[in-house]
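Render EamA family transporter RarD in 3D.
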Amino acid sequence: MFFGFGAYGLWGLLPLFFVLLMPAGSVEIVANRIVWSVVFCVLIITVTRGWNKIGTAVRNARVLGPLAIAGVLIVVNWLTYVFAVTHGNAIEASLGYFINPLVSVLLGVIVLKEKLRPLQWAAVGVGFVAVVVLTISYGKLPWIALVLAFSFGLYGFVKNRVGGRVDAITSLSVETAVLTPFAIAAMVVMAVLGQATLTGLGAGHFWLMVSSGIVTAVPLLFFGASARRLPMTTIGLLQYVAPLLQFVVAIVFLGEHMGLDRWIGFGIVWLALVILTADSLVHYRHASRLRRAAA
């Protein structure tokens, strides 16, 4: 539970960190996040002597391919999220992660042809109503929330295809290594154009940018440690900690405004999550009773 709360708590406080990195733009922040994550991963892998795991993952096309796709999906997610936070849309970003569980259920139907239980259908239907209400509230489709929800939902789906064949640090290392050449190219281009802030705003800003690698890797390692020890239902409940913290941070610390119409839209989303969570708990308890009876 400590590792789980640590992971989702750190993810929930990320908006405060990204605000500290301004005036760096979203592309520069994400490029540095990728490069310094790789450096941090190399240090961990060297200390833990995990290079054989990296070699095994890279040589296996069924592992390398999905991880490369996962890398593309997560960089889309990171770019969108950092853009949202640095442009005053942290509330909409939190909405994306509230919607994410509904997207995961929807992907199960579309991609895996899973059959939903009645309460799951109800949750998805209520979620759709919430998107309509929020579209009216924003005066446009809440694209930031939808991009975050679908990119992270697809990321989780792709990672699930890899299964338990790689651990968290190996997975992060391969995903970011695939993206590193593009990240370095972006940093060089911004430096040539005079748009880079990495070395131009003092030592404090430089080390904050470098620490983005640690900020990226540590919660992921915490998550991996908790996921190996906790039931999936507990992990499912813990995942709401991050968007809830992001939501509070956006209102209390970043001063973003929530009108009545948006409160209504968010309320409908939360209703959908309550329905989905209740269904998951009931299904888990029923499955547990069946397992005990069989034993």
